[in-house]
Amino acid sequence: METDRKIILLADTEQSQQDKLRDFYTSFANQIKDKGLEDSVSLVRASDIGIYGKGFAVKIFPRGIVYTGVNESDIGAIIDASVKGQGTVERLLFSEEPKQIRIVLRNCGVIDPESIDEYIACRGYGALKKILSGMNPAGVIEEMKKSGLRGRGGAGYPTWMKWKFTRESQGDRKYVICNADEGDPGAYMDRSVLEGDPHSVIEGLIIAGYAIGAGMGYMYIRAEYPLAVERVKKAIEQAYECGLLGKNILGTDFSFDIDIRLGAGAFVCGEETALIASIEGKRGTPRPRPPYPSVSGLWGKPTAINNVETLANVPYIILEGGDKFALIGTEKSKGTKVFALTGKVRNSGLVEVPMGITLREIVFDIGGGMLGDKPIKAVQTGGPSGGVIPVDRLDTPVDYENLQKLGSIMGSGGMIVMDESDCIVDIAKFYLGFCVEESCGKCAPCRIGGYQMLNLLNGIAEGSGSLEDLDKLRRLALAMQRASLCALGQTAANPVMSTLRYFEQEYREHIINRKCRSHKCRSLMTYSIIQDKCKRCRVCVINCPVNAIEGDREKGFFIDVSKCVKCGKCFEVCKFQAIAKE
Amino acid sequence: MAKLTPKDIDAKIAAGLDESGDWIKVGMSTCGMAAGAGEVFSTLQQEAKKRNLEVRIKKCGCQGMCYAEPLVEVHCAGLPDVVYGRVDKETAIKILEKHISAKTLVNDNIYEVRTRRQA
């Protein structure tokens, strides 16, 4: 019978020695043959088994035993103990609690996102049924309070409070809005949830509507997510067909409608007051708060705005109870957070981790470590409103408060890993440049301050900066933080401030030594020809766009620094690595 | 579809997700599609039909391992569930021939293996 067969997986957890894995595989296979077990075992090479930096790993099914750090000399013992027999080789045994907990992503990759039946089969709309058959709105808000869930869009405002204020506000109509205008560079958690499990967000939105007494909900999705829009549209249609949206949901007197609005490519529309203006058909610019949307939001009516990930948590909390949810996480940050792990990390992708996990665990245990095993320099969290966290703070537990203390923010969940080839000034320039482009222009601190800061940064990157510029940057940042109208301007300087805090030395090197240690700032580099390595093939001479390389085959070639435009072409074309870049 | 009653929902939840028989799930979110999941999905459908294999080819969302897309999860009686990564046309055919027909796992593309979830 097939079920009697043992399956043995072999993997290289260092992921650097694939040919060695083949040798290991061969000797494993030979020893199995020698012991006459080849008919009862199938041996397979795996690419990744979720364990990193522990040498060769062997996983044996059906028992699921994992051995790590296995050498060829251990193979015999493993086969005798766990393949022939029912025992284990204690000293090689590996056991670890899984680091990821899936609440938001509970159905992502499990169900067909275009099938409401599959969602319901995974307890979907069970939470809606539960509240409609016996929980009053105050009870729902109480459950949310117990859970301690805070907004996952960035600011971390307690969800129950937002709902309570909106519920208590006077208004003949109320609205709920799902903010799916995810715009941070490198962040795509919301997209994956909408594409992989759209019904969970819809159910969360209906529950929010019930809790605050709204009859209408909007999903504000950015138009750059066509697949997400398509799947949400389909999901809403299915929910209407099943009577889970529309009049008298599940035979009760609760009625609720959902409509989709598309964002038109403006980052600022993720800000709640700008988002509301955009839905109203106006230009997407923020307005001063108060009044907060919970008092006067969409069309002047009380409105609750929640992020995609926040809403995807709601059905779980209602079904499982707030107390159970609150068991996960830290004192003030409950539950899990989804991060989009990208940059110089081996395994980029989505991770859902309990609050309080350290950045190091995320990067090394889940992300599989650095690409090419280069040393890690920093981790950027929170997108353009966040900051850069240096390597010596990697062991800080991740929650709202800790990240803020470090000068960054939780943000929506982008996490970009950097190594030594990333220049800090360049990073600050990139994020600030993003905010300058996306500034709506309504208020002066953001419009002018951002532009001036970017000019200063450009000067530093080009080698024309002075030490006074650092003070100017700090002053401008403070003005932007205090005087900007909305969060975009208030936080736009965060990447600059946090890099100045931890990497001031690198700024100073750019200014004083006119050097960029990561070789990113083009203007600060000088190119020269290493005569010992040069074969005098003239390829660089032919390729130089400004004819800055002079000399002949007899005497050798030299780069005329006064003519050189530092385009790097010679460096790219030289086959002998004879061009030095400093 | 007819309107559901609370009882219908209870019944559907009690029945659970239909994961009977052999099936293959292909991650069809933006990350998967960009890496070629669309082609893998249609290859699996066509080739399974050609070979008269009784296997359901299904779509699903992102499993999170975006670095290894396209991801294909295979459930086949008698074997643990396997997630194959970086699957292309050739690997898709191998999965049908080896994993589904011959009940042996395919080398070098395994990214996760799990014993059956108890529903």
Describe it for me?
The complex is a heterodimer of chains A (582) and B (119). With 582 residues, chain A is of the alpha/beta class. Chain A is 39% helix and 15% strand. Chain A contains 21 helices and 17 strands. In chain A, the strands form five sheets. In chain A, strands 10-9-13-11-12 form a five-stranded mixed sheet. A four-stranded mixed sheet of chain A has the order 2-1-3-4, with helices on one face. In chain A, a hairpin with a 3-residue loop joins strand 15 and strand 16. The radius of gyration of chain A is 28 Å and the shape is flat. Chain B is of the alpha+beta class and 119 residues long. A five-stranded mixed sheet of chain B has the order 2-1-3-4-5. In chain B, strand 3 and strand 4 form a beta hairpin. The radius of gyration of chain B is 15 Å and the shape is globular. The model of chain B has no long low-confidence stretch (mean pLDDT 86). The chains are: A alpha/beta (582), B alpha+beta (119). Chains A and B meet through strand 1, strand 2, helix 3, helix 4 and helix 7 of A and helix 1, helix 2, strand 2 and strand 5 of B.
Topology:
The complex is a heterodimer of chains A (582) and B (119).
Chain A: E1 6-12, H1 18-34, E2 41-45, E3 56-61, E4 65-67, H2 75-84, H3 116-121, H4 126-132, H5 137-147, H6 159-168, E5 175-180, H7 189-196, H8 198-212, E6 216-222, H9 226-241, E7 257-263, H10 272-279, E8 303-307, H11 308-320, H12 322-326, E9 336-343, E10 349-354, H13 359-366, E11 376-381, E12 387-390, H14 400-405, E13 414-419, H15 424-438, H16 444-462, H17 467-483, H18 487-492, H19 494-513, E14 527-529, H20 539-543, E15 549-552, E16 556-559, H21 569-573, E17 579-581
Helix pairs in contact in A: 4-11, 5-6, 5-8, 7-8, 7-9, 8-11, 15-16, 15-19, 16-17, 17-19
Chain B: H1 6-15, E1 23-27, H2 30-35, H3 37-50, E2 56-60, E3 72-75, E4 81-84, H4 89-102, E5 110-114
Parallel strand pairs in B: 1-2
Antiparallel strand pairs in B: 1-3, 3-4, 4-5
Helix pairs in contact in B: 3-4
